[in-house]
Amino acid sequence: MVNDSGQLYTIEGLAAGLIMIATAYIVLGSTIVYTPGDTHIADMQLETLGNDALRMMDTPQNLSQATGKSSPLTTILTKTTSGSSDEVSFDGTTFHDKFSFYCNATAVQQNDDNIQFYANVTYRNTSGGLGQYFINSSRNMTGREHAVRVTKWVKVDEQENWDRPQFVLVEVLLWRA
Amino acid sequence: MMQDRATLSIDFLVGFTIFLVALIAVANMVPGLLVDLRTGGIDYDAVAYRTGVILTEDPGYPTYPAWEQINVTHKDEIIRMGLALDRDTPGILSPLKIERFFSQDFSYPDDYNAKIVFGEHPYRFNISLAVPATNTSYSRGDPLPDGYGYIRRGVMVKTVSNATVDAARFQVANAGNHGDNSSARVLNIRLNLSALRNTSVSKEYRIDPLHERISVNVTNISKTLYDAYNSSWGKDLTQLSSARIYVGGSYIPPDQQVYLDGATYPVASGPVENDISFTLEPDLLTQIADTDSNIIVALTFDNGIPFPKNTTVTGTFLYDYNPVNVTQPHLDPGVMEVAIW
Q1: Do A93 and A147 sit in the same domain of this protein?
Q2: Any residues with CB less than 8 A from the CB of A72 and at least 6 apart, and which?
Q3: Count of domains for chain A
């Protein structure tokens, strides 16, 4: 007999409770198999390699470089201004040689890899705005590449002919040709 | 008897409970069933990635003593064989760890599966490292099959210091002179550990004799003798009578073993025509020296001619951070590949 004292009388209530407990038990007891980047393996491999290459280039290679707070990458990012114009260039050839080598060299594979890149650097100018310079690329981009992006903040200062000490963002797009 | 109070019968409650318990048990097995339905490629790539991270970014375990200094008879004490120089220097590899990792001290695949690959599956793999600057490469494992999980990592490999001592710098001016009745002379190679292990120098550029091999090559010994020697007395080979190690001024036997004139076996003494080379192994130094010891390798020259005792070189060579004296540690780029199947 139904009354207003709130007891559990109906089979529906009991069944719903058991179903809720069963659901919670199944969800909590399920094993989640999670593998890093399991849907983008190739992208993950490219990103890992690109980050490694940038880190290698920004690592001082001996005590003398470490004491002088320089690295192959900061040396490459030393600005060269041509004439009276504001055209700025970097040692793009060295960047190309080192970056391509670090990304494409292999140890056990028969042939070197064929990874292409496009690199630029973003900085803050004297008026506080953002500017961007092109560093180098291994080939022209068509826009149809399936590229991944790797970045590294690099400290530069007057030693590299920058107007003021700052961290600039080196940005590289990588893709397999 | 039917009635309208909706109470449950005991039979129904028991039956329904059994049904639910069975349902829960079956549902709980479903994820386990799906584990085996994962594609092999994804699994192997993930294992290769993990192995690559451990190899390049982890210094391994234990660290005191470092795993690479654990004797092969106690290799079971090694938990993880990471190659990074230190936990603060991911991506920079230790040469001593590389040498040990790729040595025959560990059996393929069992030791590597237990200490670097991990996992219950009996993986096969190939781990390779190439350092183009020094034209060296290492490999462990099987040849690559058609399909495998793969990762490639760019690394920097520390190249340890070494010194070439030009004996002409320490030439005795009057060696071979009839009037020179001096006793045997000594060339000291001195390592001041407290100065070398200066913590203001980052580990990747530090000279650390307690963790890295020290190599010394003394050259031009014959030339020194020839230039200084009076030809009328003929020419005998310079005699190295001993190569002793002193720690804090105390002689620590046995004598250091050295290679004379590029010989393939080390000796404690003997005639030498051109050069003497030796290495100080970290295994030895950790046993006999403290972190701030002053270590001297004393090369004693005694030509053994009755009169006079012609000697060749004398002085103290300081093994330090001066690039004029010592080829300093530096980093060379390398590439590591891990393939797992």
Answers
A1: yes
A2: A57, A58, A61, A94, A98
A3: 2
Same domain, A84 and A6: no
| A47/A89 same-domain check | yes
Whether B46 sits inside 8 A of A36 (CB atoms) is yes
pLDDT in tens, A67-90: 888 899 999 988 887 765 567 788
- Residue A14 sits in which domain range? 1-31
Helix B10-35, helix A11-29: angle, nearest 10: 20
Q: What is the pLDDT of residues A12-57, one digit of tens each?
A: 777 888 888 888 888 877 766 555 545 578 888 899 999 999 999 9
Residue-wise pLDDT tens digits, B286-325: 888 888 889 999 998 876 554 444 456 788 999 999 889 8
- The model's pLDDT over B39-71, given as tens digits with 9 standing for 90+, comes to 544 578 888 999 999 999 999 889 888 888 888
Query: Does residue A100 sit in the same domain as residue A152?
Result: yes
Q: Which ipTM was obtained for this model? A: 0.75
**φ and ψ of B300, to 5 deg:** -100, 125
Query: pTM value?
Result: 0.77
Pair A5, A23 in one domain: yes
**Strand B214-219 relative to strand B162-166: parallel, antiparallel, unpaired?**
parallel
Q: Spell out which residues of chain B touch residue A63, defining contact as CB-CB under 8 Å.
A: 201, 205, 321, 328-329
The alpha carbon dihedral of B285, B286, B287, B289 has a sign of positive
Note whether B6 contacts A10, CB cutoff 8 Å.
yes
Give the torsion sign (CA, B171, B242, B237, B235). positive
Contact check, Cβ <8 Å, A107/B128: yes
